[in-house]
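cron nightly-structures :: item 1 of 1
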Amino acid sequence: MILKYTPPKKLSEILKEFGPNPALATSVAEASHEMRRSSMRKVDFDADA
């Protein structure tokens, strides 16, 4: 089996391959903003409950 190593690309490099796409850019921006707003919640798994 032959495996080809492909180094990871930055998101900006990947988007350049698609060319100008305002809808995709808007979607990525909204997802990025939503991820920044979200927070991790601490969950306590109480075995006695």
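cron nightly-structures :: done
Helices lie at 11-18, 22-37.
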